[in-house]
Amino acid sequence: MNENKDNKKSIQEKLELLKYNCANSSHLIVDQKKCAKCKEKPCTFICPAGVYTKDEITGEIVVQYENCLECGACRIACPKNIIDWSYPESGCGVVFKHN
Predict the structure, then answer these.
(1) What's the topology of domain 18-95?
(2) What are phi and psi of 75, to 5 degrees?
(3) Where are the domains of the chain?
(4) Distance (Å, rounded) from C-alpha 51 to C-alpha 11?
(5) When comparing pLDDT for 87 and 11, which is higher?
(6) Most CB contacts within 10 A, which of 4, 8, 70, 91?
(7) Residue 12's Cα: distance from chain center in Å?
(8) Do residues 67 and 50 lie in contact, with contact meaning Cβ atoms separated by under 8 Å?
């Protein structure tokens, strides 16, 4: 019964169930020079947590690594293979929990 209730939650509601232990530095590094040549920017829509956004003024990709779910979708979807992705430092990153 609880499973049916969870299936009806929106993505945003499900993301709110997660806890993060933030690292002091990003485990996601984007080569901004090479990224500037990418027109599609799939990282901005493939990430389920919305980690990547495009700064409308500078055109650069802003990485909010604190929200990363560590799924790796961004590095798979990146057509230029320019996201240097690693796991966060020990003890940091996403902590999955159930409510």
Answers:
(1) Alpha-Beta Plaits (3.30.70)
(2) -70, -25
(3) 18-95
(4) 14
(5) 87
(6) 70
(7) 14
(8) yes
pTM of the model: 0.77
Per-residue pLDDT, 95: 77
Which pLDDT value is given to residue 90?
85
- pLDDT, tens digit, 9 for 90 and up, residues 13-56: 776 667 777 888 999 999 999 999 999 999 999 999 999 999 99
Task: Please say whether the beta carbons of 30 and 81 come within 8 A.
Answer: no
Supply angle C-alpha 78, 90, 69, rounded to 5: 40
